[in-house]
Design brief:
About 65% of the residues lie in helices and about 0% in strands. By secondary structure, it is mainly α. The longest helix has 25 residues, at about 110-135.
Length: about 270
């Protein structure tokens, strides 16, 4: 079912026109390969990361954010890696390199900044929501990764069709889905899901990205990264047009107000 969604002909037609799609970053591949070595140490993994100044800065920024609520400032990159965990680090490597690649293009700087900030907010809240619902570390980590990457399709499309986005899409993120669907016959969700599938990311992450605006099309009936991403994106975007049938199916309808409290003052 997921493949039918992301390998839709409209999606393939759009992606085939894109002139430049970023490849998986070398740092990410190095970390993945290092993790295959059972004897790999945290220090060895950290040394790979610290070759990249932008990535190191982003890691320190995240670990010192209100999201973690630490009582002291962390300046030691090795300690930061230890606190964040390897899966979170892998997600950050992907996001920093992807967003860095797109920033090199002629993408509208205001839109780029908006998507970057929004994606990090959704990732943080998604992880909180997932943590409140399950102890499954894979679901929690996948929710964070999908949160970072859920709007990557906007960067792909707006880089290829900058004039269309400049003239037709508002910068409050409320009308992207409907405008894209009307014009392209597909949306940034499916485009992003397709790209992540090509990269070999797991099905739960691909599904969360592809269906974060239409979760009812998922066949799942239990909490998943899609649930976390959908709710987080709705809350961060301050959108009240909930897909109640999906929330009822998953059994979280009565928890929305509790999730809203997870936003905190930073996102209210």
């Amino acid at each position: 079912h997921l493949r039918e969604i992301i390998y839709d002909q409209d999606v393939i037609n759009i992606v085939s026109r894109v002139k430049s799609i970023p490849v998986l970053p070398d740092v990410y591949l190095q970390i993945v390969n290092k993790l295959k070595d059972s004897s790999a140490t945290l220090k060895e993994i950290s040394q790979i990361i610290f070759k990249d100044i932008a990535l190191t800065a982003k890691i320190l920024q995240l670990v010192n954010s209100s999201f973690f609520g630490l009582y002291r400032k962390i300046n030691d990159p090795v300690q930061a890696v230890s606190l964040l965990g390897i899966e979170t680090i892998k997600s950050l490597v992907l996001s920093v390199k992807i967003f860095e690649k797109f920033s090199e293009n002629s993408l509208n700087s205001e839109l780029f900044t908006l998507i970057t900030k929004h994606s990090m907010k959704v990732a943080e809240i998604s992880k909180k929501i997932a943590s409140a619902n399950t102890k499954d570390i894979m679901v929690i980590n996948d929710s964070f990764t999908a949160g970072i990457l859920h709007d990557i399709g906007i960067l792909v499309l707006s880089t290829e069709f900058p004039d269309f986005y400049k003239n037709n899409v508002s910068l409050d993120l409320t009308n992207f889905y409907s405008v894209e669907l009307n014009h392209f016959k597909t949306t940034h969700g499916e485009i992003g899901g397709y790209l992540m599938a090509l990269w070999g990311l797991s099905d739960p992450i691909v599904e969360a990205i592809a269906l974060h605006h239409r979760p009812s099309e998922s066949k799942e009936s239990c909490f998943s990264p899609l649930t976390a991403i959908y709710i987080a994106n709705m809350l961060v975007s301050n959108d009240n047009q909930w897909d109640e049938s999906y929330l009822d199916r998953i059994g979280v309808t009565d928890r929305i107000n509790d999730y809203r409290k997870l936003l905190g003052d930073d996102y209210s």
